[in-house]
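Deviations from the work plan: none for this task. Representative record:
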Amino acid sequence: MGAQLRVYKRRIRSVTATKKITKAMEMISAARIVKAQRAVAASTPYADELTRAVTAVATRSNAKHPLTTENPNATRAAILLVAADRGLAGGYSTNAIKAALSLSERLRAEGKDVVTYIVGRKGVSYYTFRNLAVGNSWTGFSDKPTYGDAKMVAADLIEAFTAETGGVDELHLISTEFVSMLTQNAVEARLLPLKLDDVQLSDQTPAKTEIFPLYDFEPSAEGVLDALLPRYVESRIYNALLQSAASEHAARRRAMKSATDNAGELIKSLTRLANSARQAEITQEISEIVGGANALADASRGSE
Amino acid sequence: MAELHVELVAADRKVWSGAATIVVARTASGDTGIMPGHTPVLSVLETGPVTIRTVDGGTVIAAVHGGFISFADNKLSLLAEIAELADEIDVARAERALEQAKADLDAHAERRAEVRLFAARGLKAHA
């Protein structure tokens, strides 16, 4: 086998191995999207009931709560960025990080200090590599978040928000919304202070249009609101984590699908090249043999 | 017989839903029983067992850790961060958790484990 042909054969072997890996990753992600979507669907009854309850208390009572009170001269804002733990998911983490960077740019232009909280190793490594300050970070659950994870994240953020001194006045959330298998958008939302007019149910209808019965609050409207609002923030964060996880899997599936397709293309064109190299080798051998035979014949004719 | 519709929802799943005649749950101000036609109420749940008497005479017991109860228009929603039906509870594990909590002097964990054991045993007593 000629040198050229051997090189092609080796490259085909290596690309085939890569293709097997990307194909496997594509199939794993495809299976996980379904699971992640199911988790999103399973969490909606709780989120919707909670949203209704929060709106009911807020519309039926004049209870003031630190989590709903707007600070007119806000000076510090926090951003919670939800990115992936692992790469190979196309532009998934990059899009979320870009959205977070442009949001912090905007907040700084409004004269606010920005503290960034990050979920996901990719986001953390982006920020630390560029020496950007990180308030706190959580890693290890981006592809399969549980309610406990969301609670842990929310506890820190609520504490930062309610702190007497050195706390933040606003809390923004950057996550990736799962629209469909092909479309996932990085979205931003302001979590705190909570604007009740903007509170939506899972099907995007504003919760405030519903008419609520006259509830008896136990122990009191304030007490109920006190207990409800942190749960509401937790559930919003939980939902964002779940949607982001579904988006991450969808983005990875798409990236791996195009990687598999590209590997297939590459194998095809390398096979063509290898074939023509082999053919060229054969042609050369034949012409060498024919040339040799002719030379021999010429030589023997000359001696007669 | 009058009945009310009950939804028992945990943060990550719907635990139980169906028609019932009475629901007893532990709220911040004590045990509350809710029957059809109760005045609309919204209150905070404590860690405790929730007992649901279904229309066919059966009993559903669940251990609920923190959450809310809201009742309006004959529809009762029980929202809990964690909710487990009695027959889902692993008694051996709950007993281990109880011992662990007692050893650690963790009052919250102890209460949670006790409630789970209570719910799991309560179901056996009814069966």
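Helices of chain B lie at 91-104, 107-126.
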